[in-house]
Design brief:
Layout (H helix, E strand, L loop, with lengths): L28 H6 L26 H6 L6 H8 L6 H7 L11 H10 L6 H12 L5
Length: about 140
Protein backbone atom coordinates (compact mmCIF):
# COMPACT_ATOMS: atom_id res chain seq x y z
CA UNK A 1 0.00 0.00 0.00
CA UNK A 2 1.18 3.53 -0.76
CA UNK A 3 1.91 6.11 1.88
CA UNK A 4 -1.12 7.37 3.77
CA UNK A 5 -2.43 10.86 3.01
CA UNK A 6 -3.60 12.90 5.96
CA UNK A 7 -6.60 15.25 5.95
CA UNK A 8 -5.99 18.97 5.58
CA UNK A 9 -5.00 21.27 8.41
CA UNK A 10 -7.77 23.27 10.06
CA UNK A 11 -6.87 26.30 7.90
CA UNK A 12 -4.72 26.77 4.81
CA UNK A 13 -1.10 27.68 5.52
CA UNK A 14 -0.04 31.31 5.25
CA UNK A 15 1.48 30.80 1.79
CA UNK A 16 -1.30 28.70 0.24
CA UNK A 17 -1.93 29.73 -3.38
CA UNK A 18 -5.68 29.29 -2.88
CA UNK A 19 -5.84 31.96 -0.12
CA UNK A 20 -7.09 35.34 -1.23
CA UNK A 21 -4.77 37.10 1.23
CA UNK A 22 -1.53 35.56 -0.06
CA UNK A 23 0.42 38.01 -2.22
CA UNK A 24 0.72 37.47 -5.95
CA UNK A 25 3.94 36.01 -7.32
CA UNK A 26 4.93 33.79 -4.40
CA UNK A 27 5.06 30.49 -6.29
CA UNK A 28 6.67 29.54 -9.59
CA UNK A 29 4.72 29.34 -12.83
CA UNK A 30 5.00 25.55 -12.58
CA UNK A 31 2.98 25.60 -9.35
CA UNK A 32 0.28 27.96 -10.64
CA UNK A 33 -0.21 25.84 -13.78
CA UNK A 34 -1.42 22.94 -11.59
CA UNK A 35 -4.29 24.82 -9.95
CA UNK A 36 -6.84 25.12 -12.82
CA UNK A 37 -6.40 21.47 -13.77
CA UNK A 38 -8.76 20.51 -10.92
CA UNK A 39 -11.55 22.87 -12.09
CA UNK A 40 -12.80 20.76 -14.99
CA UNK A 41 -15.00 17.74 -15.27
CA UNK A 42 -13.77 14.78 -13.26
CA UNK A 43 -12.70 12.89 -16.38
CA UNK A 44 -10.26 15.69 -17.30
CA UNK A 45 -8.74 16.20 -13.85
CA UNK A 46 -5.32 14.95 -12.72
CA UNK A 47 -5.48 11.51 -11.06
CA UNK A 48 -3.59 12.84 -8.05
CA UNK A 49 -4.39 14.90 -4.98
CA UNK A 50 -2.88 18.33 -4.31
CA UNK A 51 -0.65 18.18 -1.26
CA UNK A 52 0.23 21.03 1.10
CA UNK A 53 3.35 22.95 0.11
CA UNK A 54 4.52 22.70 3.73
CA UNK A 55 5.43 19.07 2.96
CA UNK A 56 3.59 17.79 6.02
CA UNK A 57 1.85 14.80 4.42
CA UNK A 58 -1.51 16.55 4.47
CA UNK A 59 -3.85 17.48 1.67
CA UNK A 60 -3.68 21.15 0.76
CA UNK A 61 -6.33 22.87 2.85
CA UNK A 62 -6.91 25.53 0.19
CA UNK A 63 -7.36 22.90 -2.53
CA UNK A 64 -9.73 20.90 -0.32
CA UNK A 65 -11.76 24.01 0.55
CA UNK A 66 -11.89 25.31 -3.02
CA UNK A 67 -12.95 22.15 -4.81
CA UNK A 68 -15.88 19.79 -4.28
CA UNK A 69 -13.98 16.73 -3.10
CA UNK A 70 -16.90 14.46 -4.00
CA UNK A 71 -16.29 15.53 -7.63
CA UNK A 72 -12.49 15.41 -7.53
CA UNK A 73 -10.82 12.49 -9.30
CA UNK A 74 -7.60 12.55 -7.28
CA UNK A 75 -9.47 12.37 -3.99
CA UNK A 76 -11.70 9.54 -5.17
CA UNK A 77 -8.73 7.53 -6.39
CA UNK A 78 -6.89 8.10 -3.11
CA UNK A 79 -9.89 6.67 -1.25
CA UNK A 80 -10.13 3.67 -3.60
CA UNK A 81 -6.40 3.04 -3.17
CA UNK A 82 -6.86 3.30 0.64
CA UNK A 83 -4.44 6.21 0.93
CA UNK A 84 -7.23 8.13 2.70
CA UNK A 85 -9.22 5.92 5.05
CA UNK A 86 -11.85 5.81 7.77
CA UNK A 87 -12.97 9.05 9.40
CA UNK A 88 -10.42 10.96 7.31
CA UNK A 89 -12.65 10.48 4.26
CA UNK A 90 -15.55 12.27 5.98
CA UNK A 91 -13.19 14.92 7.35
CA UNK A 92 -12.12 15.76 3.79
CA UNK A 93 -15.66 15.67 2.37
CA UNK A 94 -16.96 17.93 5.16
CA UNK A 95 -13.98 20.32 5.19
CA UNK A 96 -14.63 24.04 5.55
CA UNK A 97 -12.48 26.97 6.61
CA UNK A 98 -13.26 30.57 7.55
CA UNK A 99 -10.20 31.68 5.54
CA UNK A 100 -11.30 33.39 2.29
CA UNK A 101 -10.35 31.23 -0.69
CA UNK A 102 -10.57 31.77 -4.43
CA UNK A 103 -13.64 30.17 -6.01
CA UNK A 104 -11.57 28.11 -8.46
CA UNK A 105 -8.06 27.05 -9.29
CA UNK A 106 -8.19 29.33 -12.34
CA UNK A 107 -8.91 32.36 -10.13
CA UNK A 108 -6.11 31.40 -7.74
CA UNK A 109 -3.68 30.91 -10.62
CA UNK A 110 -4.61 34.22 -12.28
CA UNK A 111 -4.02 36.05 -9.00
CA UNK A 112 -0.74 34.25 -8.37
CA UNK A 113 0.60 34.90 -11.86
CA UNK A 114 -0.34 38.61 -11.92
CA UNK A 115 2.95 39.71 -10.30
CA UNK A 116 5.05 36.63 -10.91
CA UNK A 117 7.70 38.56 -12.87
CA UNK A 118 8.01 41.32 -10.26
CA UNK A 119 6.70 40.15 -6.88
CA UNK A 120 5.95 42.92 -4.41
CA UNK A 121 7.49 43.41 -0.97
CA UNK A 122 4.89 41.24 0.79
CA UNK A 123 5.46 38.41 -1.68
CA UNK A 124 9.21 38.78 -1.18
CA UNK A 125 8.81 38.27 2.56
CA UNK A 126 6.74 35.11 2.03
CA UNK A 127 9.27 33.80 -0.51
CA UNK A 128 12.16 34.46 1.90
CA UNK A 129 10.34 32.64 4.69
CA UNK A 130 9.63 29.63 2.46
CA UNK A 131 13.19 29.55 1.15
CA UNK A 132 14.60 29.57 4.69
CA UNK A 133 12.38 26.56 5.47
CA UNK A 134 13.74 24.76 2.41
CA UNK A 135 10.46 24.88 0.49
CA UNK A 136 10.58 25.06 -3.29
CA UNK A 137 8.81 28.15 -4.55
Amino acid sequence: MSERIHPPARNPCGSCPYRKDVPSGVWSEEEYVKLPLYDGEMSTQPPSVFMCHQQNGKLCSGWTGCHDMDQTLGFRLAVIMERIVGDDVDTVLDYTTPVPLFASGAEAAAHGRAEIQYPGEKAGKVIDKLTKKGRVV
